[in-house]
Amino acid sequence: MRTLEIQNGGQKETYTFDKYAQSSDIGIMQKIGGTVILCTICVDYNNPINENFVPLNVQYIEKMYAIGKIPQGYIKKEGKPSESEILVSRLIDRSLRPLFPKYFLYPVQINLLVLSYDGKSDVYKDALNLASISLFCSSIPICYEYVPNGVRIVKHEDLISICNDFTSLQNSSLDLFVSGVYDNDDIAKITMIEMQALKTYEKQENLETIDNDNLQEYSNEISKELLLESTLLARKYIAKISKLYAQLLEPFCNTKHILTYECNSNLKQKISNDFGTQIKQHLIADSKSERKTALSKLASDIVRYYDLPDDEESYNKIESCIDAIKKDIMRNMIIKENIRIDGRAPTQIRPISIESNPLPLAHGSACFTRGQTQALVTCTLGHQNEAKATDIFITQKKARILFHYNFPPFCVGEASHIGASSRREIGHGNLALKAIESNIKNNTSTIRIVSEILQSNGSSSMASVCGATLAMLGANVAMNNMVAGIAMGIVHDDINYVILSDIVGLEDHYGDMDLKVAGNKKGFSAIQLDIKNICITQEILSMALQQAQDGLYEILESMSAVNIIPNYDLLPQRLDFTINPIRIPDIIGQGGRTIRDIIAKFKINIDFNKEKGIVILYGQSQRSLNEAKEYINEILKKKERKDIHKQDM
């Protein structure tokens, strides 16, 4: 057993090697305060895959015994990963994936088990740093000599700072998470960014309202200048920690595995000479589905043309070469000809069409189409009791705004079944929720937004953001500002680079960056950045954000031009009134009998603010709410008369 202690940001980190999970390629236990996380990495060097992506799987798991709790539900055992666990797994995956060599084809499994949690540390950041350290010390040959790590940046009033624990997020107007690695510069190379503008509140002493505690809301969109300043602070901190980790961890590293790769460069060049013109023609002229069919047929023709064995290995080699040729053609067109495969200029956005409230019985709906990407988004309003209960380490509360993103196989022309939500669907839904959440005004209802992707060729999550804004306005949900979204990309060579607005699927797949930006004319509300193998300088990031902002303005103009007429007749009504708080049990009745009778009689729902004595009624008509209020007041009057009579007796 070996241990290492590191001082990082005023806290002591202890790492234990060669003691736990010794059957793994590497197993490291991390202890920070009362938080303990175990990371294991396993690699299958005997069964490389025949795909063009790194077969990495990250599993972040929170054990309920870590906070001294028994899991809820009938089974009383941790089951499938929660949404928060999936989101953290994705955050770690996206941070580490750019570090793998281009042709690393061996399946890798990274497991992170939270075994103890003190409620103070930023366990998501700690888990990422532990996974990075474990990857650095494992047998996997990563692309850098230093240790990747992450940091969270917060903003209180006008001050941005490093977030060392989750309490720093309270009352912050910014939640910025940056991952990166030192790369022979004073600032780190970015591998991932996640940003959300957080809503803040300010007490208004002269404002009298019933249920918002006299608070003024602020949506706090982040300006480009502030985002760049915050990112620079994060990059400098990451570079410092990256060098510190590498220096201290070097004695604990395993022997690195030597990679072997079978190069098909001669075959690729031959196919490019003989069939390059055909491939380019299909790339430019065909739609997404037509291209897939045509290139699959071309692969079969090439196998026969070169008289190759009619087996899976030959087809895989040919398809791999065609894929590489497609990539070269697309990138050369953009860099050398300044034109994209669909004929657009780098800053040009695809044609947009919008239909408001196309669904006659949905509370609010919108169909947002941008090029070959189409999102049908609905908004449903409910009462407070329909909020989603969350039971996670960081916070245990009810979520009143829900965003569900569905990506059925038919949206990309695939014939397969529709199953449970994938990690990608959960991640895209969460990003869209972050984009709109701070701009929803004084929400006391439950709002469920569902985005059905009917057709997809890039940027479907950002189409969901646009559609969600329009659907909420169609349901008469009050918003501070409209929110739009756009996906940006970049293609570069050793000298030049071109930033692309509103990228399509191939530009995402073959490009070097996927930058999703949501916001409005006040600033950015959410950002997600994933990169492949390019160093995103502050200058490039600034230019990409400015180009994204210009694109958002154009999209917002299209959205603002839509005539939105809310479905007033369908929307649930609400009625609030106050009573003496001690009378609330009289409305509930013995065993809940009275309140059940009221709900059944008037077809309404009832919530309470028990501290203030506020009764909240929800129903489909104002008449039923008024009648229910009168009925409740009669119940209370009778109860009061009975109590007075008892006192007289």
TrEMBL record:
Any GO BP annotation: mRNA catabolic process
Database matches in Pfam families: KH_1, PNPase, RNase_PH
Family matches, as InterPro entries: ExoRNase_PH_dom1, ExoRNase_PH_dom2_sf, KH_dom, KH_dom_type_1, KH_dom_type_1_sf, PNPase, PNPase/RNase_PH_dom_sf, PNPase_PH_RNA-bd_bac/org-type
Key words, A-Z: Cytoplasm, Nucleotidyltransferase, RNA-binding, Transferase
Gene Ontology molecular function: any one: 3'-5'-RNA exonuclease activity
EC annotation from Swiss-Prot or TrEMBL: 2.7.7.8
GO cellular component: a single term: cytosol
K Homology domain boundaries: 571-637
Protein name: Polyribonucleotide nucleotidyltransferase
Species annotation: Helicobacter muridarum
